[in-house]
Amino acid sequence: FHLQLNRFTPGRKPLGVLYFAEVNVMTNVYNLLKSLEIVLTGFRTLRSLQETPRNQNGTSRNDKAPVTDTNIPSHLEQMLVILIQEESEREFGETGPCMEYLLHHKILETLYTLGKADCPPGMKQQVLVFYTKLLGKVRQPLLPHINVHRPVQKLIRLCGEVLATPTENEEIQFLCIVCAKLKQDPYLVNFFLENKFKSLASKGAPNATSEDVLKGQDSLSTDTGQSCRPEEPSGASGMEHTELEDAPPPQPDDLSTGLDNLSITALPEATVVRPNQDYNLVNSLLNLTRSPDGRIAVKACEGLMLLVSLPEPAAAKCLTQSTCLCELLTDRLASLYKALPQSVDPLDIETVEAINWGLDSYSHKEDASAFPGKRALISFLSWFDYCDQLIKEAQKTAAVALAKAVHERFFIGVMEPQLMQTSEMGILTSTALLHRIVRQVTSDILLQEMVFFILGEQREPETLAEISRHPLRHRLIEHCDHISDEISIMTLRMFEHLLQKPNEHILYNLVLRNLEERNYTEYKPVCPEDKDVVENGLIAGAVDLEEDPLFTDISPDNTLSNQEWLSSSPPASPDHPKNDGKTEVHKIVNSFLCLVPDEAKSSYHVEGTGYDTYLRDAHRQFRDYCAICLRWEWPGSPKALEKCNLEAAFFEGHFLKVLFDRMGRILDQPYDVNLQVTSVLSRLSLFPHPHIHEYLLDPYVNLASGCRSLFSVIVRHITLLEGVIVLEEFCKELAAIAFVKYHAASTP
């Protein structure tokens, strides 16, 4: 080394074949080699520690002194400064002599060995800091090098072995920088999917065969230690050599041990059989999520969030099949749910502040609105939010696997028994919690599993004899008409929020599958003499409600004239005339508005409760629903009656049956119940599907014998004049929705 250094000393003539024309070039080379000498001086100190005589337990006889009392930390820091400065003076991607020496001579392996033994005390912390800074501050990609990613793998296994250790902060910083590097170059994750052959062999596993070995990527390494870009682990000619092959040349003082001595302690619940592949980066992070230090746990969760989002299919498969991630998510959800009090006020569950999984710190003493169980509730909702966000960010196959695990292990295993119980207090609390997580979920894949849990996967038309085919769906719908008004209201609110979620199966399962064949209508072919009637906007055979005996005493002031409704609507265009064969919208509007007689109206002189207010709200809400349903590719017009199976018996479905039954008792029920029933029906009416519009909003539809519609349910009770406040407002709302939907369909 000194011979080479002297040859390049500035001012001396270059020797041999090495010749430099410029003095400043020689100066730069001299400085680099001088820096390398400093690096080697640091390593001599480290190597001398390895050569120190050791006790039987492997510790040095002179290792009582902490590492901070030696010059090792300053040498390590100086090495980093040299490497970073060297890189800054070169073009990007060009490796300098100092970095080449570090890579070729397996310096990181040496550091790992000392860190594993924590020799001298505190060395593990210093090694973790060095690795973290090296990976974080050096711009060129280091992980593809076999002499970098191999010791990094080994150091990863040391993290999270024991919780609440002095090195826990350095461990999570190191793991997170590795995760960040994999996020930048996702293909590198294949280097961190390790086979289990070594650990099986070392434990004498009787069934370990050559088929258990997944060939590794390190066979692709070049002579310089630079690894080629890895392919998929399952299809490559080799994955990682076993550690027996990977290990540096044997030395008497070598502290390296087999995988069996380095394996991370498994989570207690992880008792399932795993494929022969390890993802130790995930395992270490999973262990650290259980740290008593909340900051460490949050950082570990962030690291997992980065890993699940990697697009590599092999990593996604290994993550869900070879780690305990699914068990961690679901078992913690279950334990936090079970830690909740048996009885929690539904209002507290609904109004507790919005939960962010990383910011769930809570002080009972500082909370003026504290209630029993609030800390436990926040913890549960916070972890559910983390699961939701994790699945939302995850690679598709990983997200599906994680969501299915939540469905099977938490929804079915924990929540369903609570929702199916007979205790009214238990039903109320569990339904309120279900309502809260329905509102909170944002991941489409987790929402899909939640919908299947609540409603089942059936899409064929319902029959009255099979309404209990999915027991939980049947029970929840029955709870909409429960003897307890509180349970009825809470369950109805849950369904109302469920209907606002962007999932097509919700509406189809509850309503649309029963309207698909339009067998609620009575088909009457149009005769020539009916042509004029149809052209005037009336369906053949329909009864004009203005001539119905129920409405003969209605004042003309109750209705809107043609001119009034036209003044609020967009102008007709040549391509979209208003008179398109549908029932004229003003007749529909007036049909709903005139249902409540003047003498029964309670809001007649109250400002802000008129039809115009509902019209504005309906415009906004309908626009939102159209945005949700746009990707579902619903038809713009009803299915032709000639193609419908009108002979099949019509059943509106369990959900509409219960809602219609409650509407039939609207004048005999509490105000709050009526308000919630009408709110759910209004949500249903807003959906831009032609069959829903026809069945719920068209008073002039020709109903088949024995069938009922929303309008027919309302009109049977309208002659009673008591308790009609909700009914009056509901009729205004339906009129506004019908008006808005008509003009949305008529406007280009």
Automatic annotation (TrEMBL):
Biased composition (Polar residues): 218-227
Residue intervals passing through the bilayer: none
Domain FHF complex subunit HOOK-interacting protein C-terminal: 652-715
InterPro entries registered for this protein in UniProt: FHIP (IPR019384), FHIP_C (IPR045669), FHIP_KELAA_motif (IPR045668)
Residues covered by region (Disordered): 204-260, 562-582
Family: Belongs to the FHIP family.
Record's protein name: FHF complex subunit HOOK-interacting protein C-terminal domain-containing protein
Organism of this sequence: Balaenoptera physalus (Fin whale)
